[in-house]
Amino acid sequence: MEVVGEKGLARTTLADVADRAGVSVGLVQRYFRSKAQLLRFGVEHMYHRAEQRLEEVSDGPEPPASVRDWFDRACETLLPLDDERVRELTVWLEFLPAALADPEMLRMHRDTTRTLVDALAGALELAAREGEIPPDRDPRAEALALVACVDGLTLHHLVTAGPFTAEAVRTALTAHLDRLFSAPGSPRTR
């Protein structure tokens, strides 16, 4: 993850990975026959870590006070706002074009995205039942829009920088969620 994040996939060799890990190239090749296998492994790890972070929001020591609170915390865990997530999401940016040429990587990306959208849509259905969002909102469409928003903020924070500081990204996410959770009587509008 570190090497691909620093050098990019095209310039990373298995020898670079072996050197960083302090092992022989042969040992790396024993587990990864190609950079594609290595990248798949790294992205699977990244997706697993994102899933763990989302579970920690729900099951952590301080449970969310509302569905909106869960969304605030969960969506922030998906943004590159610390060194670990910057590294992971930089690798994710390398992974996306590679996924277009690799059916297994493409399947992995689509399955993970579908799982995320399903989870967000389910949480939005709960928010509608709890009166936190207007009942006429389409949970699936809103989940898709939220994933696109988070992905766009991630991309611009990592690549564009400038106005897309960590604080600006948090503010933009909050603005999006404020619009989504604008039901009369919801926690943010009381």
UniProtKB/TrEMBL annotation:
Signal peptide: none
Matches recorded under SUPFAM superfamilies: Homeodomain-like, Tetracyclin repressor-like, C-terminal domain
GO molecular function terms attached to this record: DNA-binding transcription factor activity; transcription cis-regulatory region binding
Every HTH tetR-type domain range: 1-50
Source domain of life: Bacteria
InterPro entries per record: BetI_C, Homeodomain-like_sf, HTH-type_TetR-like_transc_reg, HTH_TetR, Tet_transcr_reg_TetR-rel_C_sf
Ranges annotated as DNA-binding: 13-32
One Pfam short name: TetR_N
Keyword Repressor part of the UniProt annotation: yes
Entry keywords, A to Z: DNA-binding, Repressor, Transcription, Transcription regulation
Protein name per Swiss-Prot or TrEMBL: DNA-binding transcriptional regulator, AcrR family
Organism of provenance: Nocardiopsis flavescens
